[in-house]
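Anyone up for a design puzzle?
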């Protein structure tokens, strides 16, 4: 494969920056910070995990409702980058605010966390849609997978620095509390995310778009309605989205609630942070491997592989007892989490009409985000009913089975989908 272009590299480096949010805020340090705050307030472990799940569900519901509409409006010239910039700023600023909330204010933490989720997830809608602007169909699997790989590598740097600050604070080698060390990690995350967004803002442009017209908002709703009426025209695309709806639900839920689950099992916060760090390191080469194997065996077959690995994760999670068991679980997740997400993104990007990419990635978002409502709710309700977090994780296997069955029926993206309008390329 030829060297990556400036546009491809700038696009991929947003993953390098934004992934710091994914591991430090979504997955590792913030959930532990929140869990400690909730415990201090007298909230039980099962209930605090449930409240986190409900919060994620609320945030993703809001974005799911906005996704297709904002995406359709963003298909007009220059709008894609404007929406992208807005959600990045929302995410970065709200992440900074997390650092200034007293650790005993667990409810306020969840409120501000909601805005960080909106900023991160919202920016990713438009970031994903930019894939059609920065590369060709033939290079999409490789570029998308390399983006995830860079994300895993890049996120380990601020994560390692943050872990170091927290460990030194716990050992009394820094004159700050563990809570203050976690808050410093939130500031590091915001700075890393913001700085590495700059190449994307400078070098990536919207190549495919719809020409501006009078009453753009009204016409965007009309185009959205037309797409929904002509859903049969996009049968392969929406069938893939239905499969994606189920299997990505399990993937996202396992990622966002893994530390809370590990905490409920009695695994120390230090061990959890080390496990998550190693998971990021291991996930990077596996993401690239998935991209290369997709070129040889097809993206669809590698999606099958990823789903099967996650089914094994759900089954194994039910029998977890020791920290070593959690290590094995984490390595299984590391082997497939980047690959399944990267290939889902590139598989979908090959199916969509390029000049309507924002509209269709809005649907990609709404399917993914509605799934992200169902997964945390499923874990939360099951954990509360059974009093056992392991049962909640095991219940996710149903979603992977359904997703796999539907994905088998999706045709490969060899025949391009007809565009709604004639594309404008600059």
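Challenge accepted. My sequence:
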């Amino acid at each position: 494969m030829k060297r990556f272009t400036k546009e491809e590299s700038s696009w991929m480096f947003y993953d390098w920056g934004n992934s710091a949010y994914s591991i430090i805020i979504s997955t590792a340090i913030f959930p532990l910070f929140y869990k400690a705050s909730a415990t201090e307030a007298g909230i039980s472990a099962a209930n605090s995990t449930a409240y986190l799940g409900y919060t994620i569900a609320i945030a993703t519901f809001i974005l799911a409702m906005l996704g297709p509409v904002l995406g359709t409006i963003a298909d007009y010239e220059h709008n894609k980058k404007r929406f992208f910039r807005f959600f990045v700023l929302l995410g970065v600023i709200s992440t900074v605010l997390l650092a200034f909330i007293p650790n005993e204010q667990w409810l306020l933490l969840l409120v501000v966390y909601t805005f960080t989720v909106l900023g991160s997830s919202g920016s990713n809608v438009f970031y994903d849609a930019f894939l059609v602007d920065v590369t060709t169909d033939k290079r999409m699997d490789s570029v998308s997978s390399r983006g995830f790989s860079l994300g895993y590598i890049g996120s380990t740097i601020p994560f390692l620095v943050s872990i170091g600050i927290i460990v030194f604070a716990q050992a009394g080698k820094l004159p700050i509390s563990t809570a203050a060390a976690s808050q410093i990690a939130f500031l590091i995350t915001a700075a890393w995310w913001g700085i590495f967004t700059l190449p994307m803002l400078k070098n990536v442009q919207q190549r495919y778009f719809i020409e501006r017209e009078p009453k753009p908002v009204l016409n965007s709703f009309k185009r959205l309605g037309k797409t929904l009426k002509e859903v049969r025209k996009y049968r392969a695309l929406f069938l893939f989205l239905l499969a994606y709806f189920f299997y990505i639900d399990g993937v996202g839920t396992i990622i966002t609630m893994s530390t809370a689950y590990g905490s409920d099992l009695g695994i120390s916060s230090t061990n959890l942070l080390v496990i998550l760090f190693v998971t990021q390191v291991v996930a990077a080469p596996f993401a690239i491997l998935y991209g290369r194997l997709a070129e040889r065996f097809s993206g669809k077959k590698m999606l099958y592989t990823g789903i099967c690995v996650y089914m094994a994760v759900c089954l194994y999670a039910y029998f977890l007892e020791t920290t070593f068991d959690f290590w094995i679980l984490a390595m299984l997740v590391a082997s497939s989490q980047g690959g399944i997400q990267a290939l889902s993104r590139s598989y979908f990007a090959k199916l969509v009409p390029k000049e309507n990419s924002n509209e269709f990635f809005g649907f990609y978002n709404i399917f993914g985000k509605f799934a992200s409502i169902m997964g945390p709710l499923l874990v939360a309700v099951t954990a509360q009913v059974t009093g056992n977090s392991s049962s909640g994780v095991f219940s996710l296997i149903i979603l992977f089975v359904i997703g796999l069955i539907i994905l088998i029926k999706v045709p490969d993206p060899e025949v391009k989908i007809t565009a709604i309008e004639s594309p404008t390329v600059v």
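A detail worth pointing out: Confidence is low (pLDDT under 50) at residues 415-426.
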